[in-house]
User: What shape does this take?
Amino acid sequence: MKVWNPFHGCKKFSAGCLHCYMYRIDEAVGRDSTQVVKTGDFALPLKKNRQGAYKLSSSDSPVYTCLSSDFFVEEADAWRGELWEMMKIRSDLSFVIITKRIHRAFSALPPDWGEGYPNVAITVTCENQQAADERLPLLLQLPCVHKEITHEPMLGPIVIEPYLREGKIECVSCGGESGPDARLCDYDWILSTREQCMRAGVAFVFRQTGANFKKGGRCYQIPRSEQHRQAQKAGIDFTPPIFPDPEEQLRRLSRSAFRSRFRLGEKERQYIAVKGLPAIRQHASDFLSARLAPAEPLHDGSQTPMKGHPVFIAQHACACCCRGCLQKWYGIPKGRALSPGELAYLTDLLMCWISGQIKP
Ligand SMILES: [Zn+2]
Assistant: This one.
């Protein structure tokens, strides 16, 4: 992990900022943290060494951006265009922008942002329920390819499951507060967030305990050097299950008498020959998105006809016909939206089955 601090300084914004580590470090050297100033590293992504190679190589990803300020702070409005430009030039690096000021992002995106630069992730920090309820609806609305949530410092139990259910959040991380006046972080809050992530199929990371940590009814003072290690020792990070590759999954399905009954007829083969496979793939993706992906699909259980389109038949053959079958065959729980990764996987699977059917 690399850090890029193009500017330094910030104004305290919400409860999470109370014991900001940047203020603490600045105070020790008599520096005014409220002054936002460019640093010598402003153009770090474009800096080169004597051999003419970039100082940050592509293996330095992800680059954490603005850890001693907030990327969307007002005082940096005039500089942000250059930062976007550098991220675009260094498309070989991935950047993580961590912010509390997501409300300012909408008017601070570059003109060619579109649905988002593919190498930029935006992580919204929310330290408590109020911050989550103010900021996460905005994060969901913002066009951005990679969206993440962090609760650092986590100051109470936080319910984010309704936001996770939309399938747009890739990862959630949690941690306690550091420093001599650190507020308490309760392990039960961390575990609750983890369970919410597991139910929603979203990755979860427990980053560090903080200095003042409660577990099993007891409070512990954890030294800075131990906070990260103790969190890792808990061993509770979660990565959503990886599905078997489509070929393997089709072999599993073929062992079901019901699933293996479905075949493409002459009419469907004709249709595919006329339309072409790329168009059929688009149909498969559209059908899954519209009829299966929502948290509560309309007429679930009877939304996929038995005939009328090759994709419908593929859905029955592949157990992608309703949320009940997705739960049974893929372990994707009902009641939440499919993630982009799940949609892509199921689309591939349907196309794999269809390709097998039209082979001469
Ligand atoms: Zn079904």
Summary: The chain is about 35% helix and 15% strand.
